[in-house]
């Protein structure tokens, strides 16, 4: 990543940025980011900025961000080496919009011009389910599409979308930037080929689609569109296409650039994370994977949370903890931001785990390096104890595992360096908020509402402008045993939310069409 020179105005200049669609990615571009103006309410753009020397990836509308990684790229856990060079090599591969979990990929986003690999000849076709071999089967959906190569795959999408460039690829699939003739905006289109080959990944994609469709908030990404399947039979539905707005970069890339971040920047970023998190928690959802690369940013410093592939409901999280089946393998990618109660295998965990992650991000924004860069659980907990202090015996009451308690008791009882010495440039109220977020005991940790009301965020805080979800998110689909064909059916139904013409779902081989034959028109 090229260096960033900070001008006297506080703008980011010559940033070798990678545009992040959904959950992250990258494309080279020069970005100027002006200093945030805290006195302005966030809805009126607390920050202004512009993109120079490159075409903008940003969604042209300044309101909510309908985009996402549906999380579909997995994140690769960086090594303990925390130099900027090594962190750049880490490159925050995600599985969101990527948020799938098993694949890792470096996402590179760029919308400078149309990919030269795409032939003008274009292979435009009209997709119709009519076919000489299956003339007895009625079309599932008819709509005009065109196909074009993108990396090692061929995209077949609605003709309203014109490819600009491949911005990311990996085991999870391919992400392209595209112009949308209908909205006159640039978008990200993620193709997940053979999405149902791995049922765990397919379930994660379904979860993310449902969550992002449910959440309508300026600081949370959202899905714009999905491509209708053209398969005649449900079992032949293989590739999933998700369309979202583009974001220019993510917080990871900003932190590990040479840009000088003022406390105004830090304040505005943390405020937006908490504002989005308030909405998430009000829907009884725990994100569980907050980290800098899952916080997408535009040149005006607007921020959106992405990657909900690991999200859980409050009750589901408690059940996982009691059953001892927390998906800790999925958490390997984000150890540095993981709350102590997760690593200590506590029977229950809840919303406080997200506040711990925000505290870690807060510290990283100020120090420009990870605050708890552990190599494994033992190393991670040791570093936490050294920086925040060893817990007393009464404070271990939240640890339900005897083995974990014995480990915590054996940690060295070292003198702790005060936070104001660890963060000499930070204001006292900033350190007080950080201290309240980084309480090892989860019940002592500040909640999101009180964090927003903290004096450090007073210039931005407005209860009336910090909305909550109208209804809790329904995780009941998680209770069902979701085999491959059922996942195909459920994701097809989700596509129908954006494209009613693809409903009802195609019939299974040997079975009838589940929802009748009437098809609506797409909006």
TrEMBL record:
Binding site for ATP: 190
Keyword Magnesium set for record: yes
Region described as Disordered: spans on this chain: 1-90, 503-523
InterPro entries xref list: MAP_kinase_CS, MAPK, Prot_kinase_dom, Protein_kinase_ATP_BS, Ser/Thr_kinase_AS
Keyword Cell division among UniProt keywords: no
Cofactor (UniProt): Mg(2+)
Catalytic activity, as annotated: L-threonyl-[protein] + ATP = O-phospho-L-threonyl-[protein] + ADP + H(+)
Entry EC no(s): 2.7.11.24
Record-level Gene Ontology MF annotations: ATP binding; MAP kinase activity
Annotated control of activity: Activated by threonine and tyrosine phosphorylation.
Annotated Polar residues bias: 1-30
Superkingdom, taxonomy of origin: Eukaryota
Biased composition (Low complexity): 52-61
Enzyme class: transferase
Domain called Protein kinase: residue spans: 161-457
Keywords: ATP-binding, Kinase, Magnesium, Nucleotide-binding, Phosphoprotein, Serine/threonine-protein kinase, Transferase
SMART domains tied to this protein: S_TKc
Family as reported in the entry's similarity comment: Belongs to the protein kinase superfamily. Ser/Thr protein kinase family. MAP kinase subfamily.
Protein name per its UniProtKB record: Mitogen-activated protein kinase
Species this protein is from: Nitzschia inconspicua
Organism classification: Eukaryota, Sar, Stramenopiles, Ochrophyta, Bacillariophyta
């Amino acid at each position: 990543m090229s260096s960033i020179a900070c001008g006297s105005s506080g703008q980011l200049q010559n940033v070798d940025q990678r545009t992040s669609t959904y959950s992250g990615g990258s494309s080279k571009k020069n970005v100027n980011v002006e200093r945030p103006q805290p006195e302005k309410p966030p809805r009126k753009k607390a920050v202004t900025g512009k993109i120079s020397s490159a075409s903008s990836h940003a969604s042209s509308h300044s309101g909510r961000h309908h985009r996402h990684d549906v999380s579909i790229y997995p994140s690769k856990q960086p090594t303990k080496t925390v130099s900027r060079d090594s962190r750049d090599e880490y490159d925050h591969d995600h599985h969101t919009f990527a948020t799938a979990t098993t694949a890792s990929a470096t996402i590179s986003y760029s919308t400078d011009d149309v990919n030269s690999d795409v032939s003008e000849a274009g292979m435009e076709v009209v997709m119709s389910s009519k076919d000489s071999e299956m003339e007895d089967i009625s079309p599932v959906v008819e709509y005009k599409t065109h196909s074009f190569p993108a990396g090692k795959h061929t995209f077949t999408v609605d003709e309203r979308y014109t490819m600009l460039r491949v911005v990311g690829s990996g085991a999870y699939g391919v992400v392209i930037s595209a112009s949308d003739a209908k909205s006159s905006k640039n978008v990200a289109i993620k193709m997940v080929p053979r999405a149902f080959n791995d049922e765990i990944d397919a379930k994660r994609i379904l979860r993310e689609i449902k969550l992002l469709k449910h959440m309508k908030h300026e600081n949370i990404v959202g899905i714009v569109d999905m491509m209708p399947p053209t398969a005649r039979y449900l079992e032949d539905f293989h590739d999933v296409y998700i369309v979202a707005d583009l974001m220019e970069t993510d917080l990871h890339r900003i932190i590990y650039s040479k840009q000088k971040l003022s406390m105004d920047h830090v304040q505005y970023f943390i405020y937006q994370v908490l504002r989005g998190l308030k909405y998430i928690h009000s829907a009884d959802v725990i994100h569980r994977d907050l980290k800098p690369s899952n916080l997408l940013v535009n040149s005006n410093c607007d921020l959106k949370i992405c990657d909900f592939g690991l999200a859980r409901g409050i009750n589901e999280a408690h059940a996982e903890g009691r059953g001892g089946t927390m998906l800790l393998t999925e958490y390997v990618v984000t150890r540095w931001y993981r709350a102590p109660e997760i690593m200590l295998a506590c029977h229950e965990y809840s919303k406080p785990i997200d506040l711990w992650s925000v505290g870690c991000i807060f510290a990283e924004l100020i120090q420009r390096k990870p605050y708890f860069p552990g190599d494994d659980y033992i190393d991670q907990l040791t570093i936490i104890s050294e920086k925040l202090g060893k817990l007393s015996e009464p404070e271990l009451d939240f640890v339900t595992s005897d083995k974990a308690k014995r480990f915590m008791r054996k940690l060295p009882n070292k003198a702790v360096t005060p936070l104001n010495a660890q963060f000499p440039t930070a204001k006292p109220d900033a350190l007080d908020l950080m201290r309240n977020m980084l309480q090892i005991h989860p019940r002592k940790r500040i909640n999101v509402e009180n964090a927003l009301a903290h004096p450090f965020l007073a210039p931005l805080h407005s209860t009336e402008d910090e909305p909550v979800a109208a209804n809790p998110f329904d995780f009941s689909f998680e209770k069902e045993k979701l085999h491959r064909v059922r996942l195909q059916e459920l994701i097809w139904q989700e596509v129908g939310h954006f494209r009613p013409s693809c409903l009802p779902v195609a019939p299974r081989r040997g079975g009838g069409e589940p929802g009748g034959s009437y098809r609506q028109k797409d909006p």
